[in-house]
Amino acid sequence: MHEELAPAGLTIIAVALDESADSAREWVDAADPRPTYPVLLDREFVVAERYGIINVPSTVWIDEHDRIVRPPDITPGDDTFKEFTKIDSSIHHDALRRWVDHDELAFDADGARARQLAPSPDEQQGRVERRLAAHLLRAARSEAAERHFDRAAALAPMDWTIRRGSMPLRGVDPFGNAFFDFYQEWEAAGRPAYGVPSSSGE
Amino acid sequence: MSTLELVTDDTIYELSASIDGERVLVAADDLARATGWVLKLEGLCRDDVCVPVADRAALVASDGGIDLEAFAHALRLPFASEPGDDKQPTVAVLGTPAEVRSAEMASLDAPPFTLPDLDGNFVSLADFKGRKKLLLAWASW
User: Fold this and answer.
1) How far is CA A154 from CA A127, A162, A163, B120, in A?
2) How many angstroms away from the CA of B102 is the closest CA of chain A?
């Protein structure tokens, strides 16, 4: 997408919600083609918080005047996990082309606001508990870290950056049973905050 | 005095703190430098905003130190902390209230940021002014 749309004026800025550059680099090195755009590290998840991002992969469209024209949305790069995501990646890609080439947007500013996910006080509390847990872990205070990871999960149970994003830090496989337990819990809750289903045509 | 690591949205501050039972007390000047909030007669003030303090006794200890948790409570800031001991510092995190984040989002102004790339070079949103940007949040997990 970047090769195709960069000449038309689009820059992709990738932001990895990971603990270290090394864990992110593994994926960048394996990517084919390798990204030619900046790949940044948001270790504290503060940029994610400011943009209201609670899952990955999420994309935000930002125009030439640094205005948000499309708030975070779950946008898989391809259809590998379509069975789980229920999202058709081509719909987002076509919408993106229409915006970059023709300034065409599916909704106006009020429509963009309506699609935002404002955080609750509990979710904000969950974020500081997660941040504290990560800091404690870096100082090898893993027992204390675990307590704060647990609190974060209880406060923000549907935030994937907290529930799944903490798994590698806690020594839990983010692709293993713990993830499938969380996935079922989230699905039973009605798949909250998971972007726009592909059937909507946006 | 013991060490306090105070984590804010932007920075980590290493401050001196005195521990009084469960209370973590920080010098008012240090806290003002870290957070921008200054204790005045009107309350806690930053720029031209003052937040009245209902329970001043809970906020200010007899030695003039500011109770960190009461400070967060007065400003309605999300707050989490872990006490230290002889070897480890107390760690505290001050966050941003949900209503502040919600208002920022509703403005539709893209929050500016500067982050390191994987080689440690800093890149800012402002570096791409005048272009359309696709912010793509992803992760290895």
Assistant:
1) 11, 10, 9, 34
2) 5
